[in-house]
Design brief:
Two copies of one chain form a homodimer.
Chain A: E1 23-30, E2 35-42, E3 48-56, H1 68-82, E4 88-91, E5 106-107, E6 110-111, H2 112-121, E7 130-132, E8 136-138, E9 144-146, H3 149-159, E10 166-171, E11 176-182, E12 185-192, H4 194-204, H5 209-213, H6 224-236, H7 242-254, H8 263-279, E13 289-292, H9 296-307, E14 315-316, H10 319-332
Parallel strand pairs in A: 1-4, 4-7, 5-8, 10-13, 13-14
Antiparallel strand pairs in A: 1-2, 2-3, 6-12, 8-9, 10-11, 11-12
Chain lengths: 342, 342
C-alpha cells in the first residue's frame, strides 16, 4: 500500500467510525506499562485511520502469566477472526530481551526506511503474523537506547513534515527522550529519568510525605503557580544540581514557604525544569522543537518550555498509530526507496 | 565542667573501658533511622569519653508504638538507675515536629555558643532530665534545614581546631550536607538528596534491576573501577544534568559496556560525583575540606573527592558524641562566653 504526500495541516490517526474501506492492519503499541491495540484501515488520502481500539494494563512486565500469545489473542482475536489474514505490527518493549521476541537495536542515524528494511528482513514472531519494529541505539561513551519512540517519531514526521529537515523532538514520559532529527532520521538522542524519578520521589521519599499527609488527591488539577516556581528555580540555578534543589521541596514546606498540598507540583516543576535546562543545550537556535503527545504531561512540558522562552511548540497526538501505519505501509510498498523513507 | 584546650592531634570520643571517673552524661544521637545512646565520663584532659554505648533501630519513625519515653528507658534505664541524676542530652530528629519535643531551628549563622544559650533557655522534655539540641535553618529563597548535623559539626571543630577559622564540612548520608564554617559558626549549608536517591533508585527503579538479577549481594565490596567511572562521567559533563546520566546505568549494561553486578557502584559514583561537582562551586580555593564520619560511605566520598582533585581530606570519627559532650559542657560551664563557644 502506498502512502501519499500530505498537505501542511497535521491530522492524527484518531479513532473514527467504521469506514466503508476494510481493515488493513492491526497495530500494537506494547510497552512497559500497557498494551494498546488498534484496528486500522486506509483513509481516503492513503493514511491510516483507527477504526477500533482497545487497551489493557498488560505492559511486558505485567502481562498475565507472561503469556504474550494469550494476551494478544484477548486483545485482537475478535478482529483476526472477523478479518482473517490481517498484517500485524508492534512497537515498544515487546521487542526487548524481556519481551516476546528480542529484536536488535538499529544504530543511529536511523529513519523510517532503515526500520522498514530491517523489519522486512526478519521473520515474524513464530506462529503469528506479528512483526516487531526494532528499537534504536546510540553508541559512544554513554550509549542510549529507545524502543517504541522511534515509531512515534516516524509518525510525528509524517504528521508534521516541517520537522523532517531538522528538529528536536521531545517525548515526555517515565524515561523522557529528546531526539535530534536531521533529514528524517534519528541522529542522536538523550534519555532523562524524569518521570521515574518523580514517581519514586512522590511515592517513596520524604519529599512526598507532606502532600500525602495534606490529603492531596492524586488527580487534583496542577497548581500552575507551584509548578512554575519549581521550573523557574532550576532555570535560574544552572550549576547547582537537581539533587540539592530537590530537597527544597521539603525545606520550603517546613519553613512555611510552600503549601504541602502543592508540593508535588513544585517537585514536578523542579524535575521537568532541570530536564529542559540540560536538554536545551542540545538545541541549536532556530531548530524547531515539538512535543510528541497531547496528554496532561505534554501540556505540562509545553508550559515549562514556555517559561524557558521556547514557545509555539506543537503537541503532536496520534504519533504511535500513524508511525505504525507508516512503517507497515513501507513493508508492503512497491517503492520503498522514496526519499521520505530515507 | 570546663573543656580544656587541645593539641593538634585529633582524638575522638571512642568507647573505652570504664574509667575511675564517674559517668557525667548520657548522650543521645536520635535520628530518623536509629537511636544511639552513650554513657560518657570526663577524660583526663576534660574531654568526654564514651564509657558504654548502645544502639537500637528506633529512629523517630520506627520507635515501638511511638513511645519515646519507653524507648529511652530501655536504652538508658540501666545507666540512670546505677547513676541517678545524670544530665541527659539529645541531638537529631527527636527534636522535630515528628519527634518527642519540637525544638525550633536556630537561624544561621549559628555556633556552639548559640546552641548552648538556646538549650539553657528552654525546659527539658517534661518528666525527664533530657534536653534536645535545636537544629539550624538557613533562610532565603531556598531555605534549608538540619537536625543533628549541627552537633556533629561542634564535635568536628573541637577535634580539628584547624577547621574553626574557615572550612567546608561534608556530612555524607541520606541527606548529605555541605556546611560552610567561618569562625566556628555555621554560616550556610546545602543539602543533597544523594543517599535517598541512591536507595530509591537501587531498590525501586529500572536501574536497580540488573544488579538484582545478577545476584549482587548487598554487602559486596565496592568495585572501585565502576564507582570511579561514574564519578568521572559526572565531573566531565557539568551541564548535562544527572537525570540523563542516571539512565546510562541502564544503557551501559544493555550495550555490554558495564557488568550488571557492578552497576550499582557506577550509579553510586554518578550520584556522589554529581554532588561533588555541584558543591565544589561553594568551595573557595584554599579553604580546607573535611568529611565527618569514617564509615565506608565517608571513604567513598574521600575517593570521589580525590578524583575531583581534592586530596588530603580528614575523615572525622566520633563527632556526634564529642559534640554532645561539648554542648553539655557549655550548659554547665561557669564561663559560657569563651571564644570557642562563639
Amino acid at each position: 500500500m502506498a502512502v501519499s504526500d500530505r498537505g501542511a495541516a497535521p491530522q492524527a490517526a484518531e479513532p473514527t467510525s467504521p469506514s466503508a474501506t476494510p481493515p488493513a492492519l492491526i497495530a500494537l503499541d506494547w510497552g512497559t506499562s500497557s498494551l494498546r491495540a488498534s484496528l486500522m484501515a486506509r483513509g481516503p488520502d492513503g493514511h491510516g485511520l483507527v477504526v477500533e481500539e482497545t487497551a489493557f494494563p498488560w505492559g511486558i512486565m505485567a502481562t498475565p502469566e507472561g503469556d504474550f500469545a494469550k494476551a494478544l489473542d484477548i486483545a485482537t482475536g475478535d478482529w483476526t477472526r472477523r478479518h482473517p489474514g490481517l498484517p500485524m505490527i508492534a512497537a515498544g518493549m515487546i521487542g526487548s530481551a524481556q519481551g516476546w521476541q528480542e529484536v536488535p537495536y538499529l544504530p543511529c542515524p536511523a529513519g523510517a526506511g532503515d526500520l522498514v528494511a530491517t523489519l522486512a528482513a526478519q521473520p515474524p514472531v513464530p506462529g503469528t503474523a506479528l512483526r516487531i519494529v526494532p528499537g534504536v541505539r546510540q553508541g559512544g561513551e554513554l550509549p542510549d537506547v529507545m524502543r517504541g519512540e522511534e515509531t512515534q517519531i516516524v509518525g510525528a514526521l509524517e504528521l508534521y513534515p516541517s520537522l523532517w529537515q531538522q528538529s528536536l523532538l521531545v517525548l515526555p514520559g517515565t524515561h523522557s527522550k529528546w531526539v535530534r532529527i536531521r533529514r528524517g532520521r534519528i541522529e542522536g538522542f538523550t534519555t532523562y529519568l524524569t518521570g521515574e524519578l518523580f514517581a519514586l520521589l512522590s511515592r517513596h521519599s520524604i519529599l512526598g510525605r507532606p502532600a500525602m499527609e495534606a490529603g492531596a488527591p492524586p488527580d487534583r488539577p496542577l497548581s500552575r503557580a507551584a509548578f512554575e516556581r519549581g521550573v523557574s528555580v532550576t532555570l535560574r540555578a544552572p550549576s547547582r544540581g537537581i539533587t540539592s534543589l530537590l530537597f527544597s521541596t521539603r525545606s520550603l514546606v517546613l519553613s512555611g514557604g510552600l503549601d504541602a498540598i502543592d508540593s508535588l507540583d513544585y517537585l514536578s516543576g523542579l524535575l521537568i525544569g532541570d530536564e529542559i535546562r540540560a536538554a536545551r543545550t542540545d538545541a541549536p537556535a532556530g531548530v524547531p522543537i515539538a512535543v510528541i503527545g497531547a496528554s496532561g504531561l505534554s501540556q505540562r512540558y509545553d508550559f515549562a518550555l514556555s517559561l524557558a522562552g521556547i514557545t509555539g511548540v506543537p503537541l503532536i497526538s496520534g504519533a504511535a498509530t500513524t508511525g505504525l501505519w507508516r512503517i507497515a505501509s513501507g513493508l508492503s510498498s512497491d517503492n520503498p526507496s522514496r526519499e521520505s523513507l530515507s
